Amino acid sequence: MQILKSSDYKLYSKFIENLAKKLTKFYYSKLNKPFKVSNKLRSGYDPVTTADKAFERFIRNEIKKKFPNHQIIGEEFGHKKTKSDYSWVIDPIDGTRSFVIGNPTWSNLISLNYQGNPVIGLANFPILKKFYFNTSFNSAHVSENGKKKRIFVNQKATYSNMKLSAAFHGSLSLNKQKKIPQILKRMQFPCSDALSYSHFAEGKLDVVIQCGNKIWDIHALIPIIEAAKGVVSTWKNDDAKKAGNIICSANNSLHKKMLKILKPVSS
Hints:
- The chain is α+β, with helices and mostly antiparallel strands.
- The protein has helices at about 5-30, 50-65, 95-100, 175, 180-185, 195-200, 215-220, 220-225, 250-265, and strands at about 35-40, 45-50, 70-75, 80, 85-95, 105-115, 115-125, 130-135, 140-145, 145-150, 165, 205-215, 230-235, 245-250.
- It has two domains: about 5-150, Fructose-1,6-Bisphosphatase, subunit A, domain 1 (Fructose-1,6-Bisphosphatase, Chain A, domain 1), CATH 3.30.540.10; about 165-265, D-Maltodextrin-Binding Protein, domain 2, CATH 3.40.190.80.
């Protein structure tokens, strides 16, 4: 469903495309060096680095320069409230654990929401030198090594031949996991935060299941997934913009099948 005018999609998608390139340059010029790590939690582990905060400051500044009246919601610096219908949702580093240990799969996630609905998304992977974004409600792209191509999910996927990636992030107990043996048996492909959702939109995976996504973990991916013709929801089949436990599937038939399998652990 088209929410913005075509001219608005063009304006905002051009902005995020340019922002992706700026973010990668910013990383290599300013942040590709030793950093400090701290733990947000007293019990458990939720790391944040000086790079997370530097990225978010940079992104907020870029948005403020171009769209000063828009709201901004960031993982590290909270909510800048205005009366605008537009809000930007930022995860400066999605996959901070990967960032800390040197895995290249971390990303910058940025969503533009209109009246609370994600309409434009960016998943930028500086080390991989690629980024995913949508230019309208039905057109998603990947840009790699300066070359841009349109992407689609694998709509021909079936339950018998699907490529499944799943991660429970410590949110699903072992006892609950035992209630979904069909999924445990089919988890043949690694799950790497936003990169798995991006690979799904590109047709490389057919189902991705994750636990405990916050709005900044998933909002940027929703418009990309939907523009690539994928289906995305919570495990309870609620709107994915609510975040939480998320599943995306390559077509409606497969999505219904997977939701049924997840039912014992979705309540």
